[in-house]
Amino acid sequence: MLPAFMLPQTITVHGPTVETVDGPQPGEPTTVPAYVERKHSLVRDHQGNEVVSNTSAWLNPLTIEPGQTVTIDGTDRVVIAAEHYEFPRTASHTRIYL
To answer: Which residues is 23 bridged to in the sheet?
Structure first.
């Protein structure tokens, strides 16, 4: 896990969309600490296409999949790609591209 001093911001991660009798509903939101970087990066989406991400965020290990919604500074963004890093003797974390 990343130490708290490395995660000065917070983001809200919305769970995957759930199908209900009333139609698709957004999943339960969870607020988590994060480090947000506004920087353009060329990444591959879940279909293998190259797309430009304008924001990325590092957070403690969390299951996030492409297509989920994340709220940063009041703006909803869609996750383009997510990378999960697990290391036995160092800080495991998740990095998402928005």
So the answer is: 20
Burial of 33 (0-12, 13-18, 19+ CB in 10 A): middle
* Residue-wise pLDDT tens digits, 1-53: 899 999 999 999 998 888 888 888 878 899 999 999 999 999 999 899 999 99
Strand 75-78 versus strand 50-53 pairing type:
unpaired
CB atoms within 10 A of CB 78: 11
Confirm if 78 and 65 have CB atoms less than 8 A apart. no
What's the topology of domain 4-97? Answer: Thrombin, subunit H (2.40.10)
What lies within 8 Å, CB to CB, of 63 at 6+ separation is 84
pLDDT of residue 36: 97
User: How do the domains of the chain map onto residue ranges?
Assistant: 4-97
Tell me if 77 sits within 8 A of 84, measured CB to CB. no
